[in-house]
């Protein structure tokens, strides 16, 4: 069983995700940010499933590890979809939405195929390795896409406060997870993911909740502020 500190972090992350959904409903932005809300609701369901396997089989069991890695892959996919929805919002006025979605699908399929190819020769650990490899590669793709989107925001002078801050938070989140996967080379894969991931899991819903609560959809950043952020 995880210790008291781990349980506090775990519960805090779930509470913050629920707060974001409630704030979205209160601010009448649930459908506008539908994929964000679905991601957090999916994460709440995943945490419930992990808790079930944790209590039933124990933290060191294969069943719990399978549940952990496959729900993690599913959540990474959900966050990827949320990121693509931000692309659609930024490029929507340029009528590029169709091309953005097609590119996203090809990137997703290519990442899945590459991940499978990496672990296909090790059938004895294919079950967990594919889920882990897919999550890792999707986080890398998400990191690159987030920085590309940030460059597009600067180029197009996007000033919607919510969009800008959502993208900035995603950039920090993906960067932090990239660092976590790098730490896997220095420590146990499962130990690193299970100890640091819950802490990072609190940061994204916290930053997004602050953004959606403090700023309306009509809120705008001044161009000078955007340039200052770029520096």
Structure summarized in a few sentences:
The chain has 231 residues and is mainly α.
Features:
globular; Rhopdopsin 7-helix transmembrane proteins; mainly alpha; 231 residues; 81% helix
Model regions low in confidence, pLDDT < 50 over at least 5 residues: none
The CATH class, by name, is Mainly Alpha
CATH T-level topology: Rhopdopsin 7-helix transmembrane proteins
Q: How many angstroms separate the termini?
A: 45 Å
Arithmetic mean of pLDDT:
81
User: Approximately how much beta-strand content do the residues carry?
Assistant: under 5%
Count of distinct strands: 0
How many separate helices? Answer: 8
H/E topology pattern: HHHHHHHH
Q: How would you summarize the topology of this molecule?
A:
Elements: H1 4-26, H2 34-57, H3 62-91, H4 97-119, H5 126-156, H6 161-183, H7 189-214, H8 223-230
Helix pairs in contact: 1-2, 1-7, 2-3, 3-4, 3-5, 3-6, 4-5, 5-6, 6-7
Task: Describe the structure in your own words.
The protein is mostly helical. Helices cover 81% and strands 0% of the residues.
């Amino acid at each position: 069983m995880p210790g008291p500190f781990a349980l506090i972090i775990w519960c805090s992350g779930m509470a913050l995700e629920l707060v974001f959904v409630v704030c979205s409903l209160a601010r009448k932005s649930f459908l506008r940010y539908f994929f964000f809300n679905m991601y957090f609701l999916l994460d709440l369901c995943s945490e419930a499933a992990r808790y079930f396997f944790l209590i039933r089989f124990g933290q060191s069991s294969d069943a719990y590890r399978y549940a952990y890695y496959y729900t993690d892959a599913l959540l990474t996919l959900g966050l990827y979809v949320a990121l693509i929805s931000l692309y659609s919002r930024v490029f929507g006025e340029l009528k590029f939405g169709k091309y953005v979605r097609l590119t996203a699908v090809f990137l997703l399929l290519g990442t899945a195929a590459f991940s499978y190819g990496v672990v296909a020769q090790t059938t004895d650990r294919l079950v967990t390795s594919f889920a882990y490899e897919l999550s890792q590669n999707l986080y890398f793709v998400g990191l690159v896409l987030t920085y590309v989107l940030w460059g597009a925001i600067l180029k197009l002078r996007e000033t919607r406060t919510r969009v800008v801050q959502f993208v900035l938070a995603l950039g920090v989140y993906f960067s932090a997870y990239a660092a976590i996967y790098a730490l896997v080379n220095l420590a146990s894969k499962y130990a690193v993911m299970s100890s640091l991931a819950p802490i990072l899991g609190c940061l994204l819903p916290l930053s997004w909740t602050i953004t959606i609560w403090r700023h309306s959809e009509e809120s705008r950043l001044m161009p000078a502020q955007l340039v200052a952020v770029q520096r």
